[in-house]
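Hello,

Our lab assistant flagged a job as stuck in the queue for most of the afternoon. It eventually completed. Since we weren't sure the result was trustworthy after the delay, we are filing this so someone can double-check. Below is the sequence as submitted and the structure that was eventually returned. Let us know if re-running is recommended.
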Amino acid sequence: QVQLVESGGGLVQAGGSLRLSCVLSGSAFSTYTMGWVRQGPGKERECVAAISWIDGRTYYSYSVKGRFTISKDNAKNTLYLQMNTLKPDDTAVYYCAARRYSIGLITDAKEFDNWGQGTQVTVSS
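-- returned structure --
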């Protein structure tokens, strides 16, 4: 059974940076489209970034494009999210998510079927 474990969340001032990591175990990491989904207070879950298992194509939501970078290391079974120029609106629980053998690049959080436990990111003004 696949397991996803996130790390790297915390408290940061506006304008600062954080890097999230997610380790996938129990299955072949390279066969999963991976993504980061966040849920802020009173908000719906939002897919902010995703990376395709087939060709490494990436997706970013409008709210984070140009500030966040998703990447992965297949040898380490690890997904990353580098978050720069953080804003208070980025405050949320960030979840690592995965779907095996996804045909297309995932842009909707509902398309993922494996989830980590989440890590809190808080950006103070």
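-- support follow-up --
The delay was a queue issue, not a problem with the job. The result is valid. Residues 38 and 94 are 4 Å apart (CA to CA). The chain has a mean pLDDT of 96.
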